[in-house]
Design goal:
This protein is an alpha+beta fold. The chain folds into 2 domains: 17-253, Aminohydrolase, N-terminal nucleophile (Ntn) domain (Glutamine Phosphoribosylpyrophosphate, subunit 1, domain 1), CATH 3.60.20; 280-447 and 467-475, Rossmann fold. Helix content is 33%, strand content 24%. The protein is globular, with a radius of gyration of 23 Å.
Length: 476
């Protein structure tokens, strides 16, 4: 089993995002539109998907399953989810692991009213809160940290008659970490974002209704118009009165996860007023300014590195070439039992264009190096295709610290730059030279004064509770 897991890591991309959330209010066939919204967010999670819709009778109904959005839903299933309000979720396993019980949205039945919940992010004090809630009698249906919010909302029994938003405010103020929550009742949707602004969440207008999404690229699919971002520490209520805002915390930062810009988000999304493609292209320009090299062509690693490669080529005056091609039709986890077949699996997913790279000094631009496995294979692939030199340029700083906010790098041992210096990493991946982008350039590329760069700098914006101790323990 351990070997199988290792094969998955080798044959899959090196980083995974945590999840994507999508909600819609006041639009006919809300569940069907949510399907298209989730499809646009599929890059944020491929392990499971779900939709909860509120029917015209006021009842909440759910369909969820493991796999891609197109595998979980079909027309007959969506037809059972009528109504003008729905929330959806695509999942990549973070805290709690996989399994159908952890696929969201979660649906809770309660005598004060049923509600559904979808979450993007990671709660760093989840173990403490789970123990607290279990000691007060809560029984958990999943191992996901997302379920904790639902129990916190319902833990207080003295105020059954007060509006639900007060219970939500109390619950959110007990959470520490990164989150974008959608909470849906029979009458409204609450959109909530953590006070540090670590995870994106945007609001759009669609006809007479509203749309909420982890990324704005989902608005374009539906023809929705972007209105604004949910602010850090804010709860936006969406119902028949329109949208209303309430702050649950006065402590507000804009420490958006830098990896949203660098790797996770789609290039056609705008995050806090900055287009992702434009950000990546500018980071490529800054990377050339910082680390020029004598070469013949610039090649980007598909897909998230292509924008940075364009920027590097533009700044350097070198031609940008499609030296690597990604096969978009390969399976999500191509696993084979032997080393020889695994190598063939990698080549099926990514291949070098021999006639383009043969005899050339290549600048290979990638967005990040995590474990180093993928970089080593790509460098070797370019050399086998005839490249005379391969100079690797990374459009982010060395990743030296684990992430505790939902990205799947939770131990130091997983990170090659935590174990080796730059020269050691260069030798490991087999490059002629290796340079990384400086942390301050990440701020400059987006004209920002704040970003969460904890995985690069070790400066975490939140308290970590037992998370960092666990990472250190795993490293021993």
């Amino acid at each position: 089993m351990k070997e199988m897991k290792e094969m998955e890591k080798i044959n899959d991309r090196e980083l995974h995002e945590e999840c994507g959330v999508f909600g819609i209010y006041g639009v006919p066939d809300a569940a069907s539109l949510t399907y298209y919204g989730l499809h646009a967010l599929q890059h944020r999670g491929q392990e499971g998907a779900g939709i909860v819709a509120v029917g015209d009778d006021g009842r909440l109904r759910r369909i969820k399953g493991c796999g891609l959005v197109t595998e979980v839903f079909d027309e007959s299933k969506l037809a059972t989810l009528g109504g003008r309000m729905a929330i959806g979720h695509v999942r990549y396993t973070t805290t709690g692991g996989g399994g159908i019980e952890n696929v969201q949205p979660f649906l809770f039945r309660h005598n004060t009213g049923d509600f559904a919940l979808a979450h993007n992010g990671n709660i760093v004090n989840s173990d403490l809160l789970r123990e607290y809630l279990e000691n007060k009698g809560s029984l958990f249906q999943s191992t996901s940290d997302s379920e904790i919010l639902a129990h916190l909302i319902k833990k207080e029994t003295r105020y059954h008659d007060r509006p639900r938003i007060y219970s939500i405010i109390d619950a959110l103020n007990m959470l520490e970490g990164a989150f974008a929550f959608l909470i849906m009742t029979a009458n409204r949707i609450y959109a909530c974002r953590d006070k540090y602004g670590l995870r994106p969440l945007s609001i759009g207008r669609l006809g007479g209704g509203w749309v909420v999404s982890s990324e704005t690229c989902a608005f374009d699919v539906l023809g929705a118009e972007f209105v604004r971002d949910v602010e850090p520490g804010e709860i936006v209520t969406i119902d028949h009165q329109g949208i209303r805002s309430r702050d649950y915390s006065m402590y507000k930062r804009h420490e958006m996860c830098a990896m949203e810009y660098i790797y996770f988000a789609r290039p056609d999304s705008d995050i806090e007023g900055c287009n992702v493609h434009a950000y990546r292209k500018e980071s490529g320009r800054l990377l050339y300014r910082q680390a020029p090299v004598d070469a013949d062509i610039v090649v980007g690693v598909p897909d998230s590195s292509l924008s940075a490669a364009m920027g590097y080529a533009e700044a350097s005056g070198l031609p940008y070439e499609m030296g690597l091609i990604k096969n978009k039709y390969i399976g999500r986890t191509f696993i084979q039992p032997s080393q020889e077949l695994r190598e063939k699996g990698v080549r099926m997913k990514l291949s070098a264009v021999r006639t383009i790279v043969r005899g050339k000094r290549v600048v290979l631009v990638d967005d990040s190096i995590v474990r180093g496995t993928t970089s080593r294979r790509i460098v070797a692939m370019l050399r086998e295709a005839g490249a005379t030199e391969v100079h690797v340029r990374i459009a982010s700083p060395p990743m030296t610290n684990p992430c505790f906010y939902g990205v799947d790098t939770s131990t130091y041992e997983e990170l090659i730059s935590a174990r080796k210096d730059r020269e050691g990493v260069r030798e490991e991946i087999g490059a002629d030279s290796l340079e990384f982008l400086a942390p301050e350039a990440l701020l400059e590329a987006g004209c920002r004064s704040e970003l969460c760069m904890a995985c690069f700098t070790g400066r975490y914006p939140t308290a970590l509770y037992s998370a960092k101790e666990a990472a250190n323990k795993d490293n021993k």
